[in-house]
Amino acid sequence: VFTVVALVLGGLFLWLWTGSQVSTVGKESFGNELAIPPLAPSRVENDGTRVFDLRMQAGEKEFREGQRTSTWGFNGDYLGPTLRAERGEKVRVRIHNTLGEASTVHWHGMHLPAAMDGGPHQMVPAGGSWSPRWQVDQPAATLWYHPHPHGATEEHVQRGLAGMFLLDDDTSARLTLPKRYGVDDLPVIVQDVKFDGAQFDRGHRVMQSVGFLGDRTMVNGTLSPYREVTDELIRLRLLNASTARTYDFGFSDDRPFALVGTDGGFLERPASLERVQLSPGERAEIVVRMRVGERTVLRSFSQGSYDKYADAFQRRFGGGDDSFDVLELRAADRLRPSSELPSKLRELEIPDGENAVRARHFDLKRSGINGRKMAMDRVDETVTRGTTETWTVRNNNGMPHNFHVHDVQFRVLEVNGHTPPPELRGPKDTVFLPNGTTMKLAMRFDGPADPDTPYMYHCHLLYHEDQGMMGQFVVVEKGQRAGSPAAGTGTP
Ligand code: C2O
Ligand code: CU
């Protein structure tokens, strides 16, 4: 009897834990044309500053015919426009928060002063405004923006607050890559969702320790999307803007594609792959070849390409072991010829760890990083401006986590002692760490010193972040001490 009870309870436990695994493969109708977020209008002031306006607002969107869902968005009902600026340009974003509560806008992947970062210390009160300004000083990349209020990031992103921020430079201008926005260069913002009647169901499953997991995906706010394409080569800027789910992207017919960029910009050279795995917050730029009149589906497969590094069984506990038909590409009957991809893209600007002055270690646990939960008034790490460090991040917590560092683009030196695979060889600001993974990262802190204003590092599974899997670091001048960040700012 005891054995039977134990088996039943064990089965129930496993079902509750893993029961969110779903598949939409073969079930999508691809009946909706993919929306492309508009490029945000901007104006250039006399001193050359490019100024954007973002309004955080509540709205309603008809994701499904006849069903009006309550949403949040930037300058619209859901998601936000694509901001675009060039390296060297001064930018300013005038943010106006018309929501009924305080929030923030964080520039994920951007190298900028801590006070402009939009983390939990830069709250924009309900009805209030905030106008961060900085000079773009990093290579061309696909970055993004989203709220970061401590304790409520999962909810604010899920309601619809997210958008892309593209950076261009001389290299991106010179390279023969598809670059006509919305034509052969497509933003692909992937989110998982669930509906309860007309409204979003944002609830977590009992025992669902990674946070919210939806039962279907959408791209750029479009359910069951298709896109007609008219060029031979199509560049997809993939962004995993989901709050907890990790995807393993590829094509339904297993065609190879060229990976040309990671979080912080181009790789040294294109890498031919069949899968690229992205955990929440990560980006990949891929180029896929289309043949006249054909259709292919961007799919998320159920087996992670990281299984070679991590225990495949453990990985299942993340809800990553499921599959989705994400976006159908339909090639026109005539395709514009594209130039061949360049064999060399750029010299990387990420440090190789050679002159690292300091090695730090981070142990990821659901209960906190290095045994501590996030505290707004505690500085966890103090780094010296202009130095390189190695950060070794370990996950032995029995569930998946990832790791994001503000302000920097780092190089992955090692994954469990191995040379990293191509998708981890470019500039990165977020990496996936399934259980049993240790990664050694090299990063350089080039921003201005500000001992009183911290940057964040955290798990980008947003429920974990909200629950305190986050820490703070400040950049100081040599010999300077960390100040004291205000405890009062932010709403834990
Ligand atoms: Cu995408 Cu700390 O955030
Ligand atoms: Cu986590």
UniProtKB/TrEMBL annotation:
Keyword Protein transport: no
InterPro entries noted in UniProt: Cu-oxidase-like_N (IPR011707), Cu-oxidase_C (IPR011706), Cu-oxidase_fam (IPR045087), Cu_oxidase_Cu_BS (IPR002355), Cupredoxin (IPR008972)
Transmembrane domains' residue ranges: 1-17
Gene3D superfamilies (UniProt xref): Cupredoxins - blue copper proteins
Keywords of the record: Membrane, Metal-binding, Oxidoreductase, Transmembrane, Transmembrane helix
Residues covered by the Plastocyanin-like domain: 58-170, 363-477
PROSITE patterns linked to this entry: MULTICOPPER_OXIDASE2
An annotated Gene Ontology molecular function: oxidoreductase activity
Family affiliation: Belongs to the multicopper oxidase family.
Protein name as catalogued: Copper oxidase
